[in-house]
# Entry
Amino acid sequence: MRMNFLIESTLQRIVYFASRYLGYANLAHDFAQKAGLFIAEKKQDYLYVDPSRITDLPCVEAKLALDLDVFRRFSEKVISENRTLLRFQRLFVIWQALYNVRHLKLPMVEVGSYRGGSAYFISAAMRHFTGEDIPLHAFDTFEGHPLSVLDHKKDPYHAKGMFSDTSYQDVVNYLLDFKGVVVHKGEFFENIGKLPDGKISFCHVDVDTYLTTKRCILQLMPRLAASGILLLDDFGAGKCPGVTKGVNEILDKLAPYQMWQMQTEQLLIIKR
# Structure
């Protein structure tokens, strides 16, 4: 019988300690996976969802179940392969957002692709929902945070080179199955010109820092089609105060929108 608990049992605490404090992250997670355990970092006031129960919802036969068996297959793939830092809760918000823009069949954008897991998940989900490879433009420096975008007062927990444990060519290879994906290497603001003209249906922004958050919103929100969605990660996250500050400073200056703050430290913005 598969066990899917948070870090509560003695065994899970041992695995978590090895991962968090002894530096044996990969070994700990490999051991946990073989033992059938799911590890999540405990955060104050954070809503956790047992991934095993996602497919046990009482409405599983209803239309809004959104093919949860397929969701689980895609999400478990990118998580188990250590391709993303997002976990089931945040990926499920992305899944639902993509379901709601599937009819637009317009290009998509991701800023902050890291190891390619979320880009893979987005592309696989949209292929599932539409039967097509919808274009996705994925942006990342693949060298971590550049010094030029950091504000030490607004981004106190971030430093140059964080999240550099990735590779442009490795991500390109990982996404080869999706003909619509184009991976762009470099800081987003310097590469925005590579994004073709026209409206877009969905943007996933996971950049952690103040300045890049502001730049992404200012550049991408006007490009959203009506009913298009921009999904921002780490809104309200204690370790990413610059994200929240950047949003609050500029969002009221943009086109009409609906804004939904999720309990998963995500902000869902819908273009009217």
